[in-house]
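Table 4 source record.
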Amino acid sequence: MTEPDPPPAGVAQALYDRRDGRLALEVVDAPAAELARPHRTNYFTAYWVRAGRGTFHADGTRHPFAAPCLLFLTPYQAARLDPDDHLHVTAVRFHANFLCVETHHHEVGCNGVLFNDPYGPPAVTLDESTEREVADLVARMRAELDTAGLAQAELLLSYLKILLVRATRLKRGQQGTAGGGVRLPPPLPELRELVERHYRRLHAPADYADLLHATPKALGRLVKQHLGKTLTELIRERVLNHAKWELLHTLKPVKEVAREVGFDDELYFSRLFRKATGMSPTGFRAFETDVRGGSNLSMPSARPSIPPPPPTGQNADRPASDPPEPGA
């Protein structure tokens, strides 16, 4: 059994592991004192901020927030919430074992919008109507978790998908704006296109400044002002999103993954990866593969994630792995 790497000093790490018997979905009221400390999980997380305001820190980036809103956190990001006044926050956390937003992106459309989005703010503002919707969905999830009735997982998954789809639609409607409805200035839309095109080989802010005919200082100031992070952090986040996907969905060696995102030095890439996730690339892959049981991955698994149905009828004597013959 693969154990997770020990967390870096100063970061509270609580990782979901199905082998502990815990559910892959939880809905909890998160204590403000706990949220104020740097913490990391391997859950996809939605924080419903019901009261209060403050600053949301994720991997060194800073974003102001004010209730009512939703804040989204991608697995393995180190985060904390600095409150300006009393916070009331409910956390909806789910592991990829419950819903992998990357593999099932077509079902909810939130990957790259709510999660794994280095270009947009992590907050979705709620009005009175949409907060009532969120409150209703959270209450339904809580009630279902308490009762454990027939088809519990199917109902919970339905409620979660509705929450994510509604939040994705809201954020898409709010994208391109910063607080107060101000349009993001050029050349930030052009910068996004350039990073998507070149992040595997261009890692220096000066490279993008040259392509945009801007000075690195002026471009960096715009990125920091409107995206809450440095241009270096933006590029690095995009690189690491790609690397994590490759580690979880392919059998490529770490050295090959490193080279694919522009790093010839595997050791330097591994240090960068560990700093961002709290785990080495090898440890990250091994732990998450064990936790997921091979589900949604291109890795061999000791058991299928969904057991095959027992053979019935005319095919009862045929091995389960053999496809039925034509016309059967």
